[in-house]
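Protein record
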Amino acid sequence: MAFLIGIDLGTSGTKTVLFDETGRVIASSTVEYPMYQPKNGYAEQDPADWVNAAKTSVRAVMAKSGVKKEDVRGIGISGQMHGLVMLDKDNHVLRRSIIWCDQRTAAEVEEMNRIAGRDKLVEITANPALTGWTAAKILWVRNNEPQIFERVAHILLPKDYLRFILTQEYATEVSDASGMQLLDVPNRCWSDELLTAFGIDKAWLGKVYESCEVTGELTKEMADELGLCAGTIVVGGAGDNAAAAIGTGVVTDGKAFTTIGTSGVVFAHTSSISIDKPGRVHTCCAAVPGAWHVMGVTQGAGLSLKWFRDQFCDSEKVAAALMGVDPYYLMDKAALESPIGANKLLYLPYLMGERTPHLDPDARGVFFGLSGMHTRRDMLRAVMEGVTFSLRDCVEVFREMGVNVSDMMACGGGGSSPVWRQMLADLYACPVKTVDSKEGPALGVAILAAVGAGLYASVPEACGAIVHTANVQEPVAENIPEYEKYYRMYRSIYPALKDRFAALAAL
């Protein structure tokens, strides 16, 4: 039996999972680390913390499992995207990594648009200039820390810095590199035009691979430290959402997944590149060679339900504690006591502004249609439906772009709710499924490692053998037109309030 290691370098911690070649979990370990916020809007992490967490968790899974090191055939790494790691000529880290959620680069985004032009950026990188993405952070260091910038010899993404520690190779892969805004996304290579325009030396960047390609081998020093064999392959891996797509089997046209976590993500695979010129959704290279993905993001998905729970559901919390169940289980039951449309009550889930499809940081949450007849369970159902309407907005953008969505997976905490999955199925008008593995990105990069090691001929073949469906929620035919009435009304509310949101923000 062959075994594979998936390392998921996240924001709160790194999780390492050891799988056998069928995708069965053998052992798992997670090590947490801090995030630093030296100023408002800043977010940084120490790359040494990632390395320590990865080493500790790899050693832990090998010790727990009793698996022979000779049987570990490959390693895949998933990671938080967009983070900036700068090394000097001696490979010393020059400053803490500026990570994905950092928002200090508004001036640099304006600079990128001024130098390259918004339309050119979208044409080459498939996305408009964004504050959280890597190119703007590189320019920020140049503009604000010139003494550091002049010492730069290498620029890597978070997971790719870990790859360097394991293999001594400067490398990246297409899915994560897509989030740097330096990659020619249609052609899957660095953009010489943008690198020249922004004054970034191409020699600083790692070689670009496909996600399942072998990028290097474990050095003897690292192998001895981790309890593995020197020469164990390390494949390209993937950015976190691209890795999650592999782990849920979203690797062919028509397949997509919805994640309802704090924010909501709708992610769809496409074998032909499609770019949304207004920039409402992101287009990146997929972890499947020669394919791409589109991704819409809603800011206040699970956050909306958590907010409602914390403010209005004390009785469910108390009852759940006595029953030994999760409060969300009882909230699901309560939502079912209100009909579709929540007795003509609609909710806009814009607690944190919105990204898809409105790109409006001033948008705010709204209950629309509230009257004296409404109950707490109507408000609860309206919150769940409002989040689902916002996710449907993402799918509508995909459809405008010609990206087919006919087979949907549900992930994240919200995806475990059968009530929410039914809402998704009815509003998407397609089956909504869950997978039997909860390992997501770690499984995805282990699958990529299995392909790189030659255990499977292709990523879709590997997913077909390893990823299995657990539950299927079919759409209910009579619910579809009922939801459509309320969805059309929902879509009309934001345009009517857009200028009022801006006026409120200006008060």
About this structure: The mean pLDDT is 96. Residues 3-242 form a domain with the Nucleotidyltransferase; domain 5 fold (CATH 3.30.420.40). The chain is about 40% helix and 20% strand. Residues 479-506 form the longest helix (28 residues).
